[in-house]
Design a protein that fits this description.
The protein is mainly alpha-helical and 95 residues long. The protein folds into two domains: 41 residues; 49 residues, no CATH class. Helices cover 74% and strands 0% of the residues. It contains four helices and no strands. The longest helix has 19 residues. 0% of the residues are buried.
Length: 95
């Protein structure tokens, strides 16, 4: 995607400049693309993604590495926000 957009981007910018006659209009287009991308990111459900990622990693560990279910620990998988907070509190109490 990166190489394709760096190839197509100048053509799109040139077309916008030719059509509008304004050399600043491509920046408006890029701003609109950025706002669109941020709007899509707000639609991402991080908690659901974390759960699905954990299930995928567990399944891959079983399939690829032929690990039994008991050998897969939570320390090797992504943690939830609550898990990170509890770990930080334990570190503070331990000091």
């Amino acid at each position: 995607m990166g190489k394709t957009s760096s190839f197509i981007g100048p053509f799109v910018s040139s077309a916008i400049i030719e059509r509008s006659g304004n050399t600043n209009m491509p920046f408006t287009f890029l701003l609109a693309l950025g706002v669109f991308a941020v709007a899509i990111l707000f639609c991402v459900n991080v908690d659901k993604s974390r759960i699905e990622c954990r299930a995928y990693l567990e399944e891959e560990a079983r399939r690829v590495y032929e690990m039994p279910s008991g050998a897969i620990t939570a320390a090797t998988l992504p943690r939830s926000e609550e898990g990170r907070e509890a770990e930080q509190e334990a570190d503070v109490k331990g000091r």
